[in-house]
């Protein structure tokens, strides 16, 4: 399938933001009603009731001398009490409806605000976290999560949470795959609203260290018939802070928000694909440069050597000159190839330092996954590295990120760069399921082996650990001394 860059222009444009605003504004206006001062209305109603009852009772007494004025006042009091009771009951209903309309208006205003917040993000990992955070606030839920489905849409590939701390999340271990009630939403594609999770026969319970949860609301996030993921909320909180069941209005509100979230997620995906397309176009251009430049140079040197071979029999000096020219040509070609290798890295490393190369690496990985990558440089003045050292380090980082993307089932990777007076320190940590350290001792995996080989070539040390908080941490320590092998490259 041929993809044109124009295919990504429209989804990334600002027009879809206006669509969100137009879709929500009428809903807000329907509930933005003008109300009278309830207290004034009550006083007016009671006054009119008293006047009407008084006019009837005392007017009838005036024309009927059989009824005493004491009886008239008694009847007036009874009828007025009944009218007051009726008015209070009626106004209580009016106030309830008014409060509900006001609450609904506030919810729609919050939905409008949340949708606008999503339009400001294009990074996919950030959008997913924003979606679940904003959904919790809209429905007043204590916990929330977004389940990103795999390509086949039959199980949860990544699970982005809200409402629990990083430490709590680490204790839960492996993220859910979609069993129990979570799987019901995946299989049916229909919203679910459960007042009591433990009492539902489809529930499979919670793993150890999982916070207790009672009520559940889940809706699919779909875009033009494609299920992108599922949005889950648990434990609806009342104004008093007690856990209650989610209402039908909560479900309707969350379904509207899921529609806007799907647009934001799809827009972020288009943005990543656009970045990926740009990388592919640049690779194609570099490939053409290689074919028209380096390969043609090598072909010309081959012809020169053939001519030198034939000339040695009749003109030895001329043959030597041709060989010298071929050697010089090979040196220039090797230099060109080295530059092309630096330029043909998927992250376009030529002429860039470690900080810039890392930024390019992170952009490419984000374009192929849901990973969120955070790069922290502890010092403004990084040690000066040769181009060869930079490329080798970026090779190691890229291999580590590839392993995380393929095997770790992580959502976050933190890359930290620091230095001592004699060494460069690099740490790559993810929040995935952890690495089987036995694989390293057994020598399994070409990627891990290549990482260690490159570290040794730099005179450095590479180590792997599984922190107690979860995931895998890769530490690279490189002495800041150019080895003779690197200087001679």
Brief overview:
With 489 residues, the protein is α+β, with helices and mostly antiparallel strands. The chain has helices at residues 9-12, 15-31, 38-63, 69-119, 124-139, 166-171, 180-188, 248-311, 316-344, 354-368, 387-408, 438-442, 446-457, 484-487; strands at residues 141-149, 156-162, 192-194, 216-223, 226-237, 243-244, 372-377, 412-419, 423-430, 461-465, 473-479.
Description of the molecule:
This protein has 489 residues and is of the alpha+beta class. The protein is built from 14 helices and eleven strands. The strands form two sheets. Strands 1, 2, 3, 4, 5 and 6 form a six-stranded antiparallel β-sheet that branches. Strands 7-8-9-11-10 form a five-stranded mixed β-sheet. The chain is elongated, with a radius of gyration of 36 Å.
State the main characteristics:
disordered N terminus; single chain; disordered C terminus; five-stranded mixed β-sheet; 11 strands; six-stranded antiparallel β-sheet; 57% helix; 14 helices; alpha+beta; 489 residues
